[in-house]
Design brief:
Helix content: 10-25%
Strand content: 25-35%
Length: 138
């Protein structure tokens, strides 16, 4: 009987343990130069200033997947840069138009700049989720 209760306890623990991973699929990568930088932001105040978590992966092929593991439940705005020259920021021309690829959660676009936090945010419920973002190049 003790063995049965131990087994049932282990099964119950396993059922309660859900993956807390957010998988971001970045599509439309135009070349293999540099890296893809992905940032998660938790508030309007921090958006595009200080990320909550970030990941960097080598640009390889037209699509890469970045996984944020053990992410707490919450709303997160996603920002992505194809940092072709590895300088850690998006390069722009004289008029402020990006020279490198970029993307945001929900494939949101801003007018004359990045979208708002609310447009770029996704809701993460604490279970595995996949978000697809298509990079744009100007």
């Amino acid at each position: 009987m003790k063995k049965l209760s131990v087994i049932l306890s282990l099964i119950a623990c396993g059922l309660g343990a859900q993956s807390q991973d957010l998988e971001v699929v970045i599509k439309n990568i135009q070349n293999n130069k540099g890296s893809i930088l992905v940032g998660l932001f938790t508030s309007k105040d921090s958006f595009m200033k200080e990320d909550f978590r970030s990941e960097k992966v080598k640009a390889s092929g037209s699509e890469v997947i970045v996984t944020f593991r053990n992410l707490p439940k919450g709303d997160y705005a996603i920002s992505i840069i194809h940092d072709e020259d590895e300088n850690g920021e998006i390069d722009s021309n004289l008029f402020g138009i990006p020279k490198e690829g970029f993307g945001f959660g929900n494939d949101a676009m801003g007018t004359f700049g990045p979208p708002s936090f609310d447009k770029a945010k996704i809701s993460f419920m604490g279970t595995k989720k996949t978000e697809v973002v298509n990079l744009r190049y100007m």
